[in-house]
Write a structure and sequence with these properties.
Layout (H helix, E strand, L loop, with lengths): L6 H24 L15 H8 L7 E3 L5 H6 L4 H8 L34 H13 L6 E6 L6 H13 L3 E7 L2 E2 L2 E2 L20 E5 L3 H16 L5 E6 L17 H10 L2 H11 L5 H24 L22
Parallel strand pairs: 1-2, 2-3, 3-7, 6-7
Antiparallel strand pairs: 4-5
Helix pairs in contact: 1-2, 1-9, 1-10, 2-7, 4-10, 5-6
């Protein structure tokens, strides 16, 4: 057990990871009945979002992927409004019109999940450029998957960020699979973070299912960015427990492979066992956290189920801005 972590921090990290897990399990349970639109679950990757976002304030920026529920919640979004959005209800963050792949909450610096593979790179880099131009101390974090690292937007954004020394951290959630293709089949190097060398910036590869390690490593890279020392790439090795999307038949991998990862590389189970073994917390204290979380989750479900759908005449609202005066 790390000497730098105390009881309160351990309970917070456990709560935040479990909060994401229970949200995703609820989404899976409600799929096909209450959940609207395609959905991609974050189960098995919770340590990354929680570890990284533990150092971010509401003023910092985050961009996400099509698998964005975990990042949204870790950045401080509410369970009830997030779930209402997936239900297609008008009380959701995007008034029920965005759904799973377009969750966003600007009030906490969450600039949005993105249905476009590699769509977050340039948005995060743009946010970091804005910070630098106004002389701020905020940072931007771009979460992305191993598959999108082979898109042109990755290289464009990293090159620009490195050239201009922008305060952005590119966090790769290497979960082993780009949809149905193994990462090892699409790249010439075993560690994606080594690409950082070509841009003259730091690149680090770590165990992304160790929340303490993610927290410690990301702290160093975020502090570096805040101090004006430029961007970096953090590759977090993890595993996608669920399919690429909820209806994915997963013919590209075996059930045994998935079960082995769930049993032995589950970030929440690993952390729970670690803090219990170290006598940092008790089973009773963790049970209290779990109980409080279930109450919060049940309240969120009730909120989502009882919220109204948008009215038909609201379909075209929020699509266009009003008339904008431009100085000539």
């Amino acid at each position: 057990m790390s000497q730098q972590i105390g009881k309160e921090e351990a309970l917070t990290l456990y709560y935040e990871m479990l909060r994401i897990r229970r949200f995703e399990e609820t989404v899976k349970e409600k799929s096909g009945t209450s959940i609207v639109g395609p959905t991609h679950l974050y189960i098995g990757e919770e340590a990354i979002a929680v570890g990284v976002c533990s150092h971010l304030t509401k003023a910092d920026y985050v961009t996400s992927t099509h698998r964005g529920h975990g990042h949204t919640l870790a950045k401080g979004a509410r369970l009830d409004r997030s779930l209402a959005e997936l239900y297609g209800k008008k009380t959701g963050y995007c008034k029920g019109k965005g759904g799973s792949m377009h969750l966003a909450d600007f009030s906490v610096g969450m600039l949005g999940a993105n249905g476009v593979v590699g769509g977050g790179f340039n948005i995060a880099t743009g946010a970091a450029l804005a910070v630098k131009l106004r002389g701020g101390k905020e940072v931007a974090v771009c979460f992305f998957g191993d598959g999108s690292s082979n898109r042109g937007t990755f290289h464009e954004a990293v090159n620009l960020a490195a050239s201009w020394q922008l305060p952005v951290i590119f966090v790769c959630e290497n979960n082993g699979w780009a949809s149905t293709t193994r990462f090892s089949e699409t790249g010439s190097i075993p560690q994606l973070a080594k690409r950082a060398e070509g841009y003259g910036i730091p690149g680090v590869t770590i165990d992304g299912n160790d929340v303490e390690l993610v927290k410690k490593t990301s702290a160093e890279l975020i502090a570096r960015a805040r101090n004006g020392e430029g961007p970096s790439i953090l590759e977090c090795l993890t595993y996608r427990i669920e399919g690429h999307f909820l209806a994915d038949p997963q013919l590209y991998r075996t059930k045994e492979e998935v079960q082995e990862q769930y049993d032995n590389n589950n970030p929440i189970t690993r952390f729970r066992e670690k803090i219990i073994t170290a006598k940092l917390v008790t089973e009773r204290e963790l049970s209290e956290v779990e109980w409080q979380l279930e109450l919060e989750l049940q309240a969120a479900i009730a909120f989502a189920e009882n919220s109204p759908f948008p009215e038909p005449e609201e379909a075209l609202e929020d699509l266009f801005v009003g008339e904008v005066a431009v100085n000539e």
